[in-house]
């Protein structure tokens, strides 16, 4: 059967001449058009996305592998989403990246693709695109930075930021010390070396079977990352020959492995939104409740910041994700096929744990069964809310206290340092209008710092509730993704300062203790906000974005369109 690319490069007449001749202007000779697999290498390289700035070197290593296996590699750019620089949030643009990459892959003479990602949203965005096109595809994440080093101790990117911010607010360090810490925690190429969203999604893609074993954890500057890139290039050519596609890999069993892996590594709550969005692209039924029910038997095995002590470099040397999956035993769906062409069980058969401080045993875990992401429901979150138990304070997992409501995060930051703020350790902070529509884009603003007044009283954590997200590098008792969001008319829109909020994580409850008739009265006074954007992508996004519990994709992007093959040379 002719390759898809043959419809371009093997065509006769004007269409074939056009396709071949304009590629020849890059110096390629005739034999690259002999019917060999054409492999697209899609990067998210940009100096505006610092976590991905080394992808050019990775792409060169992938190309070596493609050439070695008899393929023809062609590199192409995708929208770069750098969490550290883009405003208001890269999550606003995840769906735009997915749409752009999908159409680029579909419109070009490609038989298979290698997708290079790194920073938080580039990984799910590219995987959503690959799932919708369903050409043979393999991902390669860019790898974490080396461990941060500060005054003889290891510090983690992101997590050290939240710690330094709290110390600065409390007067324990100066602004000059903050400047020094910045350089200490970011000392090499790569994404966050804490178990933040970037590291979490790298592990998730490996657990899904969409990247090669151990690829999630090799540091960005480790030679073995480039050896893995070369092998990835070889493997995608084989996948084209085998016709192994994302729809073969991204099964319900694969998603179950990803969910359980996320619990075992103490992964980011952001994985919930991303995995649901990816599943909807391939037609796999996945709900927010699966992240609770599928993890009830899973302990937290990995002792990494922000939940623990160590960092991704340590995780790599301790055995990486294959060692964690092997430790989970029968909780892993071992028959799930992966991009290696082998099952997950075969991939992890020889994995070993080399440091039990970093990757603990199932029988003696870092944190016990049931400390992963919990999904809460109740009168405040009828569509669900999530909390990262491994990063929360045990004393606050069952709590009842008065709400202090802020319409947006800016309103909170304007007063959080005030000594006369009417707040104490029992207060429940509500930051609303931070959801998919409300901000827009559902930014990582929910983990607002504890008020200075409360810190001065000796408390470093209080309950915070929001329809937004928090960074995977953050910690604290923060209840996130409250659905429906306030901007969509969810109960969060009707909470008033002084209302009593009840949290019961063991029983998965989140309730607003206000009589239903009073809620109905408040609801009747509320008006649905109009789209505040008069043009461009933000207008499109606001009109079509789904709620967090549905993956926050655009409604018209759910599902896939497959790959386009031109007819009659057109």
Tag the structure with descriptive keywords.
570 residues, ILV_EDD_C, Glucose Oxidase, domain 1, alpha/beta, Dihydro-acid_dehy_C
What does this structure look like?
This protein is an alpha/beta fold. Among the domains are: 1-35, no CATH class; 373-525, Glucose Oxidase, domain 1 (3-Layer(bba) Sandwich). The protein has 20 helices and 14 strands. It has helices at 6-9, 13-24, 55-68, 91-107, 122-133, 159-170, 175-185, 197-208, 223-242, 246-249, 252-265, 270-282, 290-293, 312-318, 320-327, 344-348, 409-413, 452-456, 516-525, 536-544, and strands at residues 38-43, 72-77, 112-117, 137-141, 148-150, 153-155, 373-378, 381-388, 398-406, 428-431, 464-466, 478-483, 500-504, 509-512. Strands 7-8-12-11-10-9-13-14 form an 8-stranded mixed sheet. Strands 2-1-3-4 form a 4-stranded parallel sheet, with helices on both faces. Strands 5-6 form a two-stranded antiparallel ribbon. Helix 11 (252-265) runs antiparallel to helix 12. The radius of gyration is 24 Å and the shape is globular.
